[in-house]
Amino acid sequence: MKKIPRKEGMKMLPLVWTMALSQKDDFFIEPFSLTKTRFRCFFEKTDGITERLTVYFHLSETEEPKDFPPLPSRIYFYGAYNPVSVRQVRSFGNIRELEPEEKAKLIRVLKDRLDGKDVGDNLPLPPSPEKKEEARQLIKTGKFYCFEPLYYEYNIYERD
Question: In sequence order, what are the residues at sequence separation of 6 or more whose Cβ sits closer than 8 angstroms to the Cβ of residue 149?
Fold first, then answer.
């Protein structure tokens, strides 16, 4: 993986079709695997003196990585997308569980987006009606997290 400037990483990370978390720095993610987790992510860009990207997301109990650290902690956030060649994006940063009021706001944002409302973070691959309903059911349980990237990396490769 090659380090990229923060602004470039902030543009690339929200384009991912899929996402995963790991403590490992050599985790490999396919662009078409784990796409249902992306439907429960929200990428928030903030402008100001320091532009930043914050990722809010939900994981069901079965989706938490086996190597998940005690929180708050630092972890790798992996994603991939495939416009022509596969682009893997990785960010290392801080992760924490959301506070109850943050969780309520994220649930509202995710439900609104699943209902087709503009929430400022468009999904690169819109979910099917079945995937939308699955996401609605999944957010009833599980945990909600906030990831704040410290740096970004990416890799590009051609499909065989």
Answer: 6, 9, 10, 13, 52, 53, 55, 77, 91, 92, 93
* Total count of domains within the chain: 1
Tokens of 140: 């009833």
Structure tokens at 52: 């930043």
CATH number at residue 79: 2.30.110
The answer to whether 54 touches 60, Cβ cutoff 8 Å, is no
Q: What is the pTM of this model?
A: 0.90
**Amino acid in position 5:** P
- Determine the structural domain holding residue 122 and report its residue range: 2-157
Task: Looking at the chain, list the stretches that DSSP marks H as alpha helix, in order from N- to C-terminal side.
Answer: 6-12, 35-38, 100-114, 129-138
How does pLDDT run along the chain (160 residues), one tens digit per residue? 899 999 999 999 998 888 888 888 888 777 677 678 889 999 999 887 888 999 999 999 888 877 788 899 999 999 888 877 888 899 999 999 999 999 999 999 999 999 988 898 878 878 889 999 999 999 999 999 999 999 999 998 876 6
